[in-house]
From TrEMBL:
Keywords: Membrane, Transmembrane, Transmembrane helix. It comes from the Eukaryota. It comes from Zingiber officinale. The chain crosses the membrane at residues 16-38. PANTHER family: EXPRESSED PROTEIN (PTHR35755:SF3), PROTEIN, PUTATIVE-RELATED (PTHR35755). This is Uncharacterized protein.
Length: 107
């Protein structure tokens, strides 16, 4: 004899609240992403910065700066002075990069 078992009813929380909560979380994340992109697009960029990654950041927003591991002087990029080439004629003996590396390894 097959006994007739009644199906176990699902809790109302799973039917109503859980899908609504998932939709609410997805919506809030999408809105936060759109707002973040808007803020990046409308933010004024600092002019004349040597190293734009740290120039845009306040000291409170970067962990290495807040811990005292890096200072502003450490984050600046110091470019070498550009030198002018005076003699642009070709050398009588040409040497390749491979030859320079081979000679450096032999020493």
């Amino acid at each position: 004899m097959a006994s007739h078992q009644q199906p176990i009813p699902r809790p109302w929380v799973l039917d109503l609240i859980l899908p609504a909560l998932v939709v609410l979380l997805i919506t809030s994340h999408v809105l936060a992403l759109v707002y973040w992109i808007y803020r990046l697009a409308t933010e004024k960029q600092p002019q004349g910065s040597r190293f734009p990654f740290f120039a845009e950041m306040s000291p409170a927003s970067h962990p290495l700066l807040t811990l005292g591991l890096l200072t502003r002087r450490d984050t600046e990029v110091k470019l070498p002075r550009s030198t002018r080439v005076k003699n642009k004629t070709a050398a009588p003996i040409q040497i390749t990069a491979e030859q320079i590396l081979r000679e450096a390894r032999q020493r």
